[in-house]
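Weekly puzzle thread! Below is a chain. First person to post its structure in token form gets bragging rights.
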Amino acid sequence: MTQKRSSTLWRWTALLVLVAMVLSACAAPAAAPSAPAAGGEEAAAPAGDEITRDNTLVFAADMTDIITLDPAVAYEFGGILPVGNMYETLASFDPGNPEIVPLLAESWDIADAGDMWTMTFKLNPAATFSSGNPVTADDVVFSWNRAMEINKSPAWLLIDVCQMTKETIVAVDAGTVELKIPKAVSPNVCLAVLTFTVAAVVEQAALEPNMGDDMGESWLNDNSVGSGPYVLNGWERSSTVTLDANPAYWGGTAPAMKRVILQNMPESANRQAAIETGDADIVQELGPEQAAALEGNPDVSLVKGLSTLLAYASVNATMPPFDNADARQALRYAINYDNIITLLGGNGELVQEIIPIGFAGHVGNNPFTQDLEKAKELFANAGVTEGAVIPFTVATGTGPGGVDWATIAASIQADLAQIGITLDIQLLQQSELLTKYRAQELPMLLMNWGPDYTDPDANGTPFANYEANSLAWRNSWNDPQAIELSKQAAVELDPATRIELYAQLVEYMQNNGPFAMLYQPSRVYALRNNVQGFIYDPGDTPNVSFALISK
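Winning reply:
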């Protein structure tokens, strides 16, 4: 299922040509930021620095999952990376710091208002969009309402977790936003939600003239209207996203990297070659073989950290045979988890829970080991006999931990083949797979999930609560007990009781849910040794802040 070497060579050659073209085309002063000023007119070109290879950062990764660059819609890892560097939220996390800190808001207050919580945000008066216009409370209200009205994948965070409505968000004055949320919602959880890109603030005056029939979704794929340290230069679909430094960034010194080229490079071998030659400055998600090959290279440093992602195989709970609980349990007993961990070569930990290591509520219980006889018996109880064929949809490119998705899928395929069941692997580009998954169209698939905020509810609700229209919904898993447990755990204020509720939810999902949880990966980056200021923070959005990086 891997591509031939000739294919990788021509793609690698194409990358070198592309980077050369981008840099040579910009040997003049930097182009104007693509974020328009109020009224939709483009900002004047800065007199700034010339774009050179020295002040250009080339970041190579498998970014085949990018679907959009609209902060109200982006919900894929590849899209959140550039979006999180172009747009800002009221509050955020400093890289490496677990505490929520002010960003566009200079302060906030949470008050008990009887049957509601009132969250009052005071905006930083210095905050400006890349157009130079101030960030106002009206922009915040417009941005949050727009995200809820579009109601795409990440909107559940505002609608279901924070239980926001248009009526509960008010611009008190130009610098003050008031949000009321029900008492059933934890204000601390909601505050954490508001650090995610779906709550990013866009400039209303710049976007409104370009809303069109889709509320500006398509326009924001080629333009940016944020307040972050970078603006969008252009998106070449399936190829590159190019960001330019915002020369008037309000948050401090303008970024040292005047241009960032995010290069879609699905194959690990090509990423290794790119970092070895210096054609990439940073590469993301190296496999164990590539990381081992780079050990000792005097020009390259490796950065490794346990991510908060979880890799899993999942099934549609309304499609045969997995509409039967025995078939779902049989799948969990059929998998050779040790073999998958071996394939990862040290780049992952066995985790069979819906809550990752490092989060409150993680129990550390891995109850499943491969038991083919038990799996065969359970499948038979569900009416699945030898010779059965089950479609198994798998993404192309690299999975978490640096191993190709197809390699992990082949391991699971071989496991079920031992009991006479054929998994018919169907490879799709990740963006196409996600579209089908979100439409509840896939009987079985391989995927990963990363929490949107640093609270166990960030996994408890999407995995267990069908009503949230997230993972449980995508897998047609509508289970009242799972829904109720996830709701109770989300709002429980006593820490000990909350952890106990999550322990119950974890165990229930392990034995009843539509997921076979596989592992929690480590993410391995390689950096050229002249790169400074790089921080990988799995608890922050977007994990890597380009404004911190210099050469």
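Puzzle host: Confirmed. Bonus trivia for everyone else. The longest strand covers residues 515-528.
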